[in-house]
Amino acid sequence: MGSSNNTNGPASSGRYSTGDLKAVRSPKITDQDDTAKIIQELYSWVESFVVESINWYTREKVSKSRWSRFLRMSAVLSFALGAVTPVVAVGMGWSNQAIWGYGIIGIGACCVAVDRVFGFSSSWMRYVSTAISLNRQLVIFQAAWPRVEAKLAQQATLEGFTEAVQELVKFVDSTSLLMENETLAWVSEFQNHVVQLETGSIPALPQRSQ
Description:
This protein is mostly helical. The chain has one domain. Helices cover 73% and strands 0% of the residues. The longest helix is centred in the first third of the chain and has 57 residues, at 35-91. The chain is rod-shaped, with a radius of gyration of 26 Å. The two termini are 37 Å apart.
């Protein structure tokens, strides 16, 4: 599989070190490099690019999942406690204290609203889904690459080189499209939340916890 274990290529030089997407320089290729070496360099660069992207999504989903679980659990407990409080208060003869149940339920609604507005749960789901999809495409590409290398070794011509480059370009395009779709989904969600805040509407309780 060539350099499938090499994750120290040009794309792994801190592309996501600050949490933001950065531009990536292509590997340095000279006229003295033969066809096989050029393809090997390009493969290592493309592979490390996708590997680092997967690692970023996997790393970033951790904080999103923690906040999502905390807010959702707080909401569930608040709703449950708020529903029980009036019953307990009346049963204990503290009717004047029953109103606290509404305040506790309000706290639960705020937890849900914060999760919806800041997108902790939705981001968690998008990151997990994108990481899984990227990893699937990476494994398929890694498994198929030896065939491309073998064909290039048997047919070390411009046509064979062009075909190998096209395979790399197709892989980069498909994986980049996955990340682009995830980003566009985030933009759309963020814009909707901004509209909700500007209009003063409170996000409704979602049907499915993410």
